[in-house]
Amino acid sequence: MQAILLSREEVAQRARQLYETSIRQKVEVEENIGKMVIIDIETGDYEVNKNGLCAADYLSEKHPNARLVGFKIGYNVAASFGGGVMERVVK
């Protein structure tokens, strides 16, 4: 399959749409809060793991050259650097 060139914003928008429409209700359960969900934006496949790199490795083996985006389940950001605020989001 030929790769479609997408901007960073388009990649983020596609990932957010997949998360909100088909993934969130499956993964946002108490035992997953604080874990990472990594999403292949082209196939919609995803993997949940405490370690985002492990989840990304699993998806990369399954789909070489996958475009992956990660979210920290239940939080507004995946990581916080330089005094940024990581807040728990309740929906």
Multimeric state of these chains? Answer: single chain
Q: What is the percentage of strand-forming residues?
A: 15-25%
Low-confidence stretches: none
In N-to-C order, the SSE pattern is: HEEHE
The number of helices is: 2
Mean pLDDT across residues: 87
| Widest β-sheet, arrangement of strands | 2-1-3
The shape, in one word, is: globular
Q: For the record, give the distance between the C-alpha atoms at the N and C termini, rounded to a whole number.
A: 37 Å
Largest sheet: 3 strands, antiparallel
Into which percent range does the helicity of residues fall?
Answer: 25-40%
Computed Rg: 13 Å
Main structural class:
alpha+beta
**How many separate domains?**
1
Beta strand count: 3
Describe the structure.
The protein is an alpha+beta fold and 91 residues long. Helices cover 34% and strands 15% of the residues. The relative contact order is 0.17. The model has no long low-confidence stretch (mean pLDDT 87).
